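@channel sequence for tomorrow's demo:
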Amino acid sequence: MKDNEKKREQLVNELSELRSQNAAQEKAITGYISAELAAEETLRYAESIVETVREPLLVLEADLKIISAILYDGEAVAVCSRLFREKQFSFE
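structure tokens (generated this afternoon):
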């Protein structure tokens, strides 16, 4: 009988621990989802700003890859293209 009580107590303790771990994981997942949603909202906001610009605009990554380009003047496009090729930068 004592063995059964001990096993039952162990199972209850394990169940309690698993529930605690589950709650911690759910909290972490919720945090990740919130961060992802915030990042998406920030990206949409930045893109909306870029879309409203009425002047030529070139958005680059740190390694100088083009993320976005708004070039209204064909000559400006040609100059940028030539400079990027001369410097061996890459276009996406």
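heads up for whoever presents: The first helix runs from residue 2 to 52.
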